[in-house]
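Chapter review: from sequence to fold.
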Amino acid sequence: MATIAESLARWAVEHEPDPADLDLARRSLLDTAAVALAARDHPLTRIAAELPDAARWAAAGHVLDFDDLHIESTTHISVVIVPAVLATGGDARAYLAGAGVMARWGAALGWSHYSAGWHATCTAGAPAAAVAAGVAMGLTAPQLATAMALAVPAAGGVQQAFGTHGKSLQVGFAAQAGVRAARLARAGATADPAALEAWAELVGATGTPDLGGPAVPGGLAIKVFPCCYAMQRPIAALREIKDQIAGEVAAVRVRTPRATVTPLLHDRPDTGLEGKFSLPYAVSTALLDDYPDFAAFTDEAVRRDDAQRLLRRVELATSEGADGLLAGQVEIEVDHAGPVLRVAMGDPPGAPSRPPTEDELRDKLTACGADVPGLLAGADWAGVRALLSAELPGTGTIRTEEAIR
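The token string follows.
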């Protein structure tokens, strides 16, 4: 009987993309490139300049927390897979192979894996990046299975890193680990493909990959606000009623399934990064800012007296129920000078059920400071690789994979 790694590797080699798959790959390339470029001047991007290409580009693409998300696996697929593909000269087919494996493997790891505190973007991402890089290099299915096994030692990352540079760096490490594993497999390294499922059992995986459906089952959620996906829904809901608020807000009561706030670790954020993982700050920025953009998630914005005062007036009540960041719906009540305001929301804008239009995607690229006409006109993989190489250059200080190129 084939191992999980062997089954996923065979799927990756045999999958034939259809037009919908290719459209998703194009959107993912644009979204990831734009968000990485928006982080040109972020302190972490300068720190990560010492890392190899895949790690550097992935860290830059994740530090603003504006990159896409696969709901079923609770993983940020493109920020791992796009850099791995670009670093190895791949294209849409390599992206879809890696993205499809990451979606399926992440879903098989299950919500219990994520809710236990693992950063599934990394644990599912390292083996999937090995597939993406391996397909870009022309590896066979057996070689891809070996590469996945070789990526197991790097399949780590914990949610305790959320709100620090560690979150983005461990995503970068996952992308680079995949590239390294694929290169080792190409060079002839051996590994037992069963290592993947042995590791999965150790970390509490609950399922097996479903090899049916499109390249990325369920599609990808595109973020509208540059913060954790768990904050997208409450922010969007409050924006629907904020114009009706009169006078000072006395209290904001949020009721939501417990699972939907799992990654929101910071009730009293003090930095911009902590603010990206804070339900109380989601309320503050939704009510105080015209639009919660990059400026809303700086240290200065989070430390505003108005924001700090308001976030202390947020009351959270959670309920049991379905798992996942979009489980059930969020229900919010706002006490103010007028009658109590109430709003509820299921899927927020940008969710797979509410995908962005071409104009909305263009607006996001513009907000990221990308060269929108050039990026939209020439969104080929080689062109984006050249763009990131020019705009996010590395120093070459840390080159751990040199010996196996």
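Two observations follow directly from the output. Residues 238 and 286 are 6 Å apart (CA to CA). The chain has two domains: 4-223+353-404, 229-345.
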